[in-house]
Amino acid sequence: MSTSTNQARHDHVARGTTVGFLTDVSLCIGCKACEVACKEWNQVPAEPACFRGYDNTAALGAATWRHVQFLERDERLGAQVAGPMTGADGEAPFSWLFHSDVCRHCEVAGCLEYCPTGAIVRVETGAVVVQDDVCNGCGYCVVGCPFGVIDRREDPLPGAGGAYKCTFCYDRQKDGLTPACAKACPTESIRFGPLDDLRARAAERAEVLRARGVDEVTVYDPQGTSVGGVHAVSLLVGPPEDYGLPARPEVPLVHQRASWTTAALAGAAAVVVTLGAFRL
Amino acid sequence: MPGLGASFGRGGATTAQQDLRDADCIVIVGSSMAEAHPVAFRFVVAARERGARVIHIDPRFSRTSALSDLWVPIRAGSDIALFGGLIRHVLETGRFFREYVAHFTNASCILKEDYRGPDELDGFFSGWQADEGRYDPASWRYEGDDLGRPRRDPSLEHPRCVLQVLRRHYARYTPEMVAAVTGVPEDLFHQVADALTDSSGPERTTALCYSVGWTQHTKGVQLIRSAAVLQLLLGNVGRPGGGVLALRGHASIQGSTDVPTLFDILPGYMPMPRARAEGDSLEEHVGRHRKRTGHWSNLDAYMTSLLRAWYRAGPEAGWGFDLLPRVTRDHSHFSYFVDMADGRVEGLFVLGQNPAVGGQNARLERRALGRLRWLVVRDLVESETAAFWHGSPEVTRGELRPEDIGTEVFLLPAAGHAEKSGTFTNTQRLLQWRRTAVEPPGDCRSEAWFIHQLALRLKARAARSDDPRDAALQALDWWYPADEQGEPEVEAVLAEINGWFVDPAARPDGASHATARDGRPHHGGQVRSYEELEADGSTASGCWIYSGVLGPDGVNRADRREPEGRLGHGWGFAWPGDRRILYNRASARPDGRPWSERKKLVWWDAGAGRWTGDDVPDFPEDKRPDHVPGPDADGMEAIRGDAPFVMHDDGLGWLFAPSGLDDGPLPTHYEPVESPVRNRLYARETNPGISWFPRPDNPVAPPDDPRYPCVLTTYRLTEHHTAGGMSRFLGHLSELQPELFCELSPELAGELGVTTGAWVVLATPRGGVECKALVTRRMRPLQLDGQVVHQVALPFHWGFAGPVRGDVANDLVPLLGDPNVTIHEAKALRCAVVPGRLREGVPMAEALEALRPGLGAPPARLHPDRPARESEAREQHPGGQSEEGQVE
Q1: Nearest Cβ partner of B191 from A31, A81, A188?
Q2: What residue ranges of chain B have pLDDT lower than 70?
Q3: To probe the interface with A, which of B74, B717, B736, B737 has the most A CB atoms within 10 Å?
């Protein structure tokens, strides 16, 4: 019997191991078990939805902490043959991809940096967690996230401030359990474990896929930007922009620094001009 | 499950999900496995990661296709033409597995001289009785009529041997013909054929998975047969990484045919007695159905043991055989709903089912519910079946008024699956025990509680009666211990299903759950397996094939959770006898050695004189591979040492089915009843012998009715469960798929002028549904020899109750039955697609008429194949196994 790596107990919290997610597009079947398991465990209420196709929860937000994206592409996926590959007017390649998006748990987390109350904290495994009872619902974190992950709920849950996002199932992790999404994933498209192991697996997996002819594989693990690295890595097919992910995510603070500088320069210039006017 | 039963011997998947990992190629057809069986699909993903090629054949590019190496779009309902083409390819290129085929299948068996096939009789097999609308199968048997001792030609050259008959039968299924009938272009056909043949043989194996996309046709049994024939020719049955995996329509559907909720079979696939003018005794019944050779020679032991489990009756009453109800005619779901619609049924119990949404021609079925005097619905929620009298479209459209519906509805709250104990029997014949996780809330109770309480009350009434019809209730042995809540001990039921020695005094050892409700010892020791069952009345067993699940050691094997080895022995219990891969004697050469090191599973250990390996051998443990029975041998002794299919009289895999099927010994392409094209292969359009149910409220479009130009196929989404009772009422699932929609190609959408999100109405002669359009390249127009055919796909989960609502897709589906098992045809229909919505508050015909003039009118002509009169109930074949009911 093969036992999924996501079913094993662990002691990452006790050891303070830095953990992460690896979400692998090439193994995802778009079943949304991760979305449902997340909502069930974390008691996130359902939202009224309307029909959009296969993706009816639309985006990550206060009520959706895992979100499966569906991408229809007029491109071939490696050596896959998707029906007759030539149409009436020539080549007609096609493929359909699924990606389960989630909070990236950034090393320099915009939400955490912006939070004025200290409600958002980093825990021993590296995850970024909102403390419901401290959050005052100001919403600064919402504009602070470079991925548009965290959001406020119109009607906060009882005893909570209002801003919500993935907790990395910190409560489960403390008990040695895998996060609910990873545990429910039938194909191990979502993996949970020590971040270094997952990065190694992502690199290895990318090689395997390239060898199979899937040459547009991207390991989405942005480095060298102001977010300082992430704890949720994705193995994508095609560029991150296709998934609504910034190629070079930046914490908005860096823009703020620049805008303060601009404002200061503008102010100084105004003073100079004003003084000049009096001199005249 | 006669498709698998007639081919291999047992009506169950031949393999296990876990075993898919060892496949070199996996063909998924008639199923969107990733969507409907996502957990099983993990083994397909694992196989693919190990290098297996995955092929998905389906009208719709689905989430399964997305993870496949090859997607083959096909016209819904034309799969036998494709598989016939593959069979022809394998035969004509000589790529069949010759040694396997010659020894293990009936390829060498010689048929009677008077057999004729559809190639000679233009669409009919010999034996067609036009006046009765059925076949006389006498000419399909082997020469000499002895199924146990066929005359064989090992060279496979005899013109009347099965292999040569097969070649002639499929000669016309050329790649060009396949392309013209199915829409599968020749290059894709050859890619499939090459993948199959490259991944079959001594070193490699191919597995095939199907689901209700194959069963819900008027030829569903023959569709499954076509896969069985191909897999036998390629030598893929009984071997690791091979086989045919029947993915069941929902939880424990396998269980509900093993311990059937069907009218024509008894537990363990034994035939139900039929009403006979001359009367019938147990001896006569057994004599009629018992096979002289092969495993079914033990029918007497299984039948007697079943009766001993049910009744307190002596041998003079045939151990209670005389008390069994008799089948008088077709009592399938369709027939009794038709009877109900005509006011001939007084009351109905509905448990775990929602026919107001899941029924076929659901409008007819909802109207039928309104003709009952009483209706009991046990469910988790007020399902559409319980709410039909105030919420159905017939009521909201003013066709019916609640005050005119006389049905008294009793809605009883049911316990959910985590709130009760018992077993599920899954897709791979695996019994898995589950324990109560939480107590059901309030007055919710398990089904077992309900049936137990009902039985106690009925028995109490019967005890006071001297009406002869209450004799069966009086004799019913309802002994089950119960707790203080009145909940019966379900493990005691499992113990009874396993079977025991009847006499507590004579065989006390190994007794389990042996104290009856009244405190007295009820039975003796448990039997170890069905091999211990006897015909003399000394043993009892509620379902012989499950024997071994709770043996004399008292261990509930369904409750084990310690898997070992590659097949997961130690987790649950797979019938029969914990065999994970059936017919596994075929994993060894005729001489008993493995075909290859890579594909070894079970082999003959000459030193020890027995079969051994990684699975429980599905063969008499000490039967030598070179065993040749004497001319007078009977029973299992008559099975040769190189004959792995021991349920069959001759021990062979049946490429040609000499018995067991009502619509022919070989799969043959017929068009669906509603087809956009004429049958190119034969003059006969549709499968002869279909149950038509010709009625004004069940009209069918004739082949050339121009109002319904598109092909319609229904399907399921991952996000919802069948008729929705367990998913549409839950916020976390209903938000994922909140509305009914249909999938159509950009080409068709362009012709209609609709885009994604626009309202469209799908109409068939039965009615219309409105839904949102989803325009996608995942649907492709098909080229059929110059003719363009558009296909539309429609999920079926919505209804008129609960937080998310939508029209009932099954309102579009006609009541029509496959000749063998009376399964409907939901996967291949014709429909009209009209932009817009249906006017509210007016009768359906008027709303359709307003949308497009003429659409609301009944068909101007009858279908040419429709019989004039209502079809009579037909005699079933011995061992008549039924396909899963698939009424959700």
Answers
A1: A81
A2: 1, 869-888
A3: B736
B566/A83 Cβ within 8 A: no
Do B706 and B788 meet the contact criterion of CB atoms below 8 Å apart? no
Domain-embedded: residue B154:
no
In this prediction, residue A116 has a pLDDT band, given cuts at 50, 70 and 90, of very high
Q: Count Cβ neighbours within 10 Å for each residue of B178-196 and write b for 16 or more, e otherwise.
A: bbbbbbbbeebbebbbebb
Among the listed residues B323, B234, B207, the one whose alpha carbon sits nearest the alpha carbon of residue B273? B323
End-to-end CA distance of chain A: 89
Collect all residues of chain A within an 8 Å Cβ-Cβ radius of residue B52.
none
Distance CA(B338)–CA(B368), nearest Å, equals: 7
CA-nearest of A46, A159, A169 to A103 is A169
- Asked if A97 contacts B66 with a C-beta cutoff of 8 angstroms, the reply is yes
Confidence of residue A92 (pLDDT cuts 50, 70, 90): confident
Query: Can you give the residue range of the structural domain that contains B51?
Result: 8-94+174-243
pLDDT tens digit sequence for A159-175? 778 899 999 999 999 99
Residue A55, CA distances (Å) to A70, A84, B79, B709, B735 in order: 6, 26, 31, 30, 10
Q: Report how far residue A100's alpha carbon sits from residue A30's, in angstroms, rounded to the nearest whole number.
A: 8
Write down the pLDDT at residue A7: 84
Q: Do B66 and A30 touch (CB under 8 A)?
A: yes
Q: Does A267 touch chain B (CB under 8 A)?
A: no
Number of inter-chain CB pairs under 8 A, A vs B: 121
Distance from CA of A57 to the nearest CA of B (A): 6
Interatomic CA distance for residues B678 and B680, integer angstroms: 6
Q: What pLDDT is attached to residue A89? A: 64
CATH number of the CATH domain containing B89: 3.40.228.10
B827 is a domain residue: no
Over residues A129-151, the pLDDT tens digits come to 999 899 999 999 999 999 999 99
Distance CA B372, CA B359 (A): 16
Q: How many domains does chain B have?
A: 1
Asked if B734 has any chain A CB less than 8 Å from its own CB, the reply is yes
Is B424 domain-assigned?
no
Asked if residue A120 lies in contact with residue A141, where contact means CB atoms within 8 angstroms, the answer is yes
Distance from the Cα of B793 to chain A's closest Cα (Å) equals 13
Pairwise CB contact (< 8 Å): A186 & B42: yes
Tokens matching residue B649? 């009289």
| Nearest CB to A31; choose among B38, B187, B735 | B38
pLDDT for residue B879: 35
**pTM, entire model:** 0.95
pLDDT of the residue at B877: 35
- For the cut 60, the answer to whether the pLDDT of residue A3 exceeds it is no
pLDDT digits (tens, 9 = 90+) for B135-155: 999 999 999 999 999 999 999
CB contact under 8 A, A51 and B731: no
Nearest chain A residue to B74, by CA: A83
Per-residue pLDDT, B872: 39
Do the domain assignments include residue B104? no
**Residues of chain A with C-beta less than 8 angstroms from the C-beta of B750:** none
Residue that wins the pLDDT comparison between A99 and B860: A99
Residue A81 has its nearest CB partner, among B38, B64, B71, at B71
**Is the CB of residue B133 less than 8 Å from the CB of residue B691?**
no
State residue A154's pLDDT score: 81
